[in-house]
Design goal:
- This is N-formylglutamate amidohydrolase.
- The protein has a single domain, classed as 3-Layer(aba) Sandwich (Aminopeptidase).
- It is 40% helix and 16% strand.
- It contains 8 helices and 8 strands, in the order βααβαββββαβαβααα.
- Helix 4 links the parallel strand 6 (140-143) and strand 7 (171-173).
Length: 242
């Protein structure tokens, strides 16, 4: 077994060739909000990667340029700042940002499968505490496809382990987002069999994940420890992960 960590929406960079699309005050404001990136996701993914000594693949660019977590046909693939750009620029976004990132993750899975029987892929996301329908009532969400037995079993075990290690947090399954929605993980399920690829998403509430506090650090350490426990992996120290 091999563990892979990824972070699709933690990047904040704007590609130079599309920079003019983000020259307005409103665009610059949006780049700094949750519209532009998942606050705290890159830090959380880095912690999980280092604490479990697992490879990390992370996108450096803002999702307002192009959202590498969506499929090419998704209506939110491009933002209001890029969807009306000339066709040449939209194509360049796909060729220079989207496809290379997706290819990098897929190649990493394929490489790990040459040395291990199967790969567990954990994609790290964060979410604002309040959504369109009101407060999101969880601290951590585990998203998976319940039709895939290995994903279901993994998340049940992880849920129970976090319950023991992190008694101060609320963990829910397939909330606030469901694991079968359009995503990079979903696309990889279509490319690899259930026996060789187990893909799940962990969603962290920005109320704690986006703040540099002792609570955040203790919680990230607990998440990594719980994952290491159920996968029988050695755990690094928090100092090494910082």
């Amino acid at each position: 077994m091999s563990l892979l960590i990824s972070c699709e929406n933690g990047g904040t960079e704007v590609p130079r060739f599309i920079a003019d699309a983000f020259s307005s005050v409103k665009a610059r404001q949006d780049l700094a909000t949750s519209r532009g990136f998942d606050h705290g996701a890159r830090t959380a993914a880095t912690w999980l990667s280092r604490l479990t000594n697992s490879p990390l693949v992370a996108c450096q660019f803002t999702r307002l340029a192009i959202d590498v977590n969506h499929s090419l046909h998704h209506r939110h693939l491009l933002s209001k700042y890029t969807k009306k750009q000339p066709a040449e620029l939209r194509s360049e976004l796909a060729e220079r940002l989207y496809k290379p990132y997706r290819r990098e993750v897929r190649n990493k899975v394929e490489h790990l499968l040459t040395r291990h029987a199967y790969v567990i892929h954990v994609a790290v996301r964060t979410f604002p505490p309040v959504g369109r329908k009101g407060p999101r009532r969880t601290d951590i969400g585990l998203a998976y496809d319940s039709r895939r037995d290995e994903e279901l079993e993994l998340c049940l075990d992880w849920y129970e382990e976090m319950y023991d290690i992190l008694p101060w947090v609320r963990v829910r399954r397939n909330y606030p987002f469901r694991g079968r929605r359009d995503s990079l993980v979903k696309s990889l399920r279509d490319q690899f069999s259930e026996d060789e690829y187990i893909g799940v998403e962990i969603h962290l509430n920005q109320a704690w994940a986006a703040r540099q506090t002792q609570v955040r650090d203790r919680t990230l350490l607990g998440i990594a420890k719980s994952l290491a426990n159920i996968l029988d992996l050695p755990l690094a120290t928090a100092i090494e992960a910082a």
